[in-house]
Amino acid sequence: MTDLRPDTRVVHLPKVQPEGSAPISTPIYQTSGFLFDDPAVFADGMDRPDGAFVYGRYSNPTTRVFEEAVAGLEGGVAAVAAATGMGAINTIFLALLSPGDHVVAQHSLYGGTGHMLEELEARFGISVTYVAEDDPEAARAAFRPETRFLYLETIANPMTQVADLPGMCAAAREAGVPVIVDNTFASPIVCRPIEHGASIVVHSSTKYLSGHADIVGGISVFADHELHRKVWKFHCGLGAAPDPFASWLSLRGLQTLPLRMARHNENARIMAARFAEHPAVAAVHWPGLPTHKSHALATKLLPDFGGVFSIDLAGGREAGVRFMKSLKVALLAPSLGGVETLVLHPASTSHRSVSDAALAAAGINPGTVRIAVGIEHPEDLWADFAQALDPAR
């Protein structure tokens, strides 16, 4: 095409394909679409998740690598990445539910998830029955012919109750009900719910998977191809696909996930034990402590207990606010799973849309403070927490 004029040349730039070598890092395919020589291949790519790359809303090579990597870590057959964690969750909800359907879910849920279930109830006639996360008999009693799935969290947000995944999945399997598990707080380093019978595992990849507080994203992993294809088709129409750069950052973070999780878990172990001994603290909610209601189950099910815990301060909400405002190393901010230690007040932030009755049912008090431990040196962290707890400061 040497006879093209400048106006055309600057539009149709050269394409470079590496020959005899390959990039070490996965490239960022920052393109909205892909070129074809064959119309049949073009059409086929729009119809299946493992076809040719066609359009960014359907698939992208950078995102595909992230999906395959997380699916491999979770022991699934395929995954669908989304622009946010709630994007991943809502894609599944809307792909699987129709008016008149029924859902069984655990009482203690992330506030955004609980809010969306309430919205589905109010606006679309979806009925929801809530059960304890560790009560398979209650789940069996709740299932109906119109139940479309059981929804659980491996480690609940923010009170860290642990779901009885083997028991709850067995009960659902007997009823022919798929199980969706939010594994964000555990990560696939601490738990792989598909191994216990889950059908879909969902993550807010904003958190531990990417691990650096620089992107928002979500991903769902599937135990079978049929369910994956059903959700993927809806995902394409919904338009919840992530940007390729966010997928690339998630991939970069994923490579250090085991190293980071080891430090998060160890720091949480040290901090939770010290908070439990402090006279200003009424209770510490972390499944690694023998006092936690899920400790026996967590010890059987998990190799470690995660980097998030909650504390109830003896002085209630006032003491919680004073504590958070006094911190200098730990930061008052939303989210979790990054390298920094973050604290928040669940009742007024992450669970602000949850009713008072639902907060009480989940064990969230007005003075509850959630602490997502980062990877700082534990002695620096404890010095900061100790000075914030000191009534004489």
From TrEMBL:
The record's listing under InterPro entries reads:
Cys/Met-Metab_PyrdxlP-dep_enz (IPR000277), PyrdxlP-dep_Trfase (IPR015424), PyrdxlP-dep_Trfase_major (IPR015421), PyrdxlP-dep_Trfase_small (IPR015422)
| Entry similarity comment | Belongs to the trans-sulfuration enzymes family.
Protein name, as recorded: homocysteine desulfhydrase
Which reaction is recorded as catalysed by this protein?
Answer: L-methionine + H2O = methanethiol + 2-oxobutanoate + NH4(+); L-homocysteine + H2O = 2-oxobutanoate + hydrogen sulfide + NH4(+) + H(+)
- Molecular function via GO: cystathionine gamma-lyase activity; homocysteine desulfhydrase activity; methionine gamma-lyase activity; pyridoxal phosphate binding; transaminase activity
Q: Which SUPFAM superfamilies does UniProt cross-reference here?
A: PLP-dependent transferases
Q: PANTHER family per the record?
A: CYSTATHIONINE GAMMA-LYASE-RELATED, TRANS-SULFURATION ENZYME FAMILY MEMBER
| Residues found modified as N6-(pyridoxal phosphate)lysine | 207
EC number from the UniProt entry: 4.4.1.2
Domain of life of the native organism: Bacteria
Q: Which UniProt keywords apply?
A: Aminotransferase, Pyridoxal phosphate, Transferase
Q: Which residues cross the membrane?
A: none
Give any Gene Ontology cellular component.
cytoplasm
Enzyme class (EC, first level): lyase
Q: Which Pfam families does the entry link to?
A: Cys_Met_Meta_PP
Cofactors that this protein relies on: pyridoxal 5'-phosphate
